Queue: 2 jobs
Job 1
Amino acid sequence: MRALAVIEAVLILWIIVLLGSLMGTFMSEGLIALVFKLAEGKGVILTLLLIIATITDMWRDKKRDRLIQKGKLEPNQLF
């Protein structure tokens, strides 16, 4: 499960870097350049990464709840 947490952290960091890149484009080149950058695929990548991170987080929460219900994990314990 820790590998999944590392992958999720990397995904979130990549999302932050992508958002920083888009903000840099907006600040230096303006709104039109940002629209073109989003149109060439940055928006799709950002959306897919956010969806993957959300689904992964939801799956981890369900898995944690199941482990707590089975008694294999304490409510205040991390897994």
Note: The first helix runs from residue 2 to 29.
Job 2
Amino acid sequence: MNIICYIYYEVAIDNCLLLISRLQKELDIQRVCVVYKDGLNIIGFRNALKNYRISNVVELVPYDGVNWEFGAYQLGCDSLNGNWGDGVLIFNDTAGRNYPFFHSDLRRFSREVTNSREINSPVIVGKLESANLDFELCGMKFSQWIRSNIFFINRASILVLNGKLFDNELFNLPVSSNERLTFGCALSETLESYLLNWLYPENLSQGWRGHVGKAVVPQKVLRSKAGSILLEKRISALILNKGGVAVSYEPKDSGWFYKLRIRIFFKARKYRNRFDSIFSFLKLNF
């Protein structure tokens, strides 16, 4: 199987390489493709690869970041030239850094990935999300999806997607008008309402703005974020509508300790982000 990793922030390089190294211990990885944002210290990155003993074939692909993470994922897929093997594991630098991905999660994830590689029908593995609502996107009905910061699609799923993780028309579907987004008729009312509530919450400490810790977000950024959310939903919807299944790596019965670890993770992330902001300010102004 293959790994595609997208790294946008230089500060996240070590986290991504550590995750690749851990995945290699759990899974049979033939090839690793790292798509990186233009401007990253590529020489330092190559040295870091040696430190983490990532020995598999590693391809480094520069990327301008214009089409966000799914544009990067597509570059990685294209670099495989159709050599899908029995599946592709895809993640970006928010996995385990902006979102929890504990070692116990990694082990469960790896087990589900191993199982899905033997299945001839479409399977997508990752963190299963649901809003307990019935959505429709481009005529496809669904009520759950897999989060796109780390997921695995087996060979049958890749064939369903026709190797296409990025869809330019869908990414550019959201249109900004009077400081709000409109989506046209490709979305059901429930999905459109869900997206707008997530991007424009009444309480700016909630929704996506609250998640990234920014009360003020440029409309252009919100538009691209909305496009990425649609692409995330598209992959799961296509697989599910072709008779496939979405499998979660989270424990079926998450006890109090697991939930406590998640709360602690996000609390620590909040303080880390504040520290990073102060450090960036000092670096730019002194």
Note: The first helix runs from residue 13 to 26.
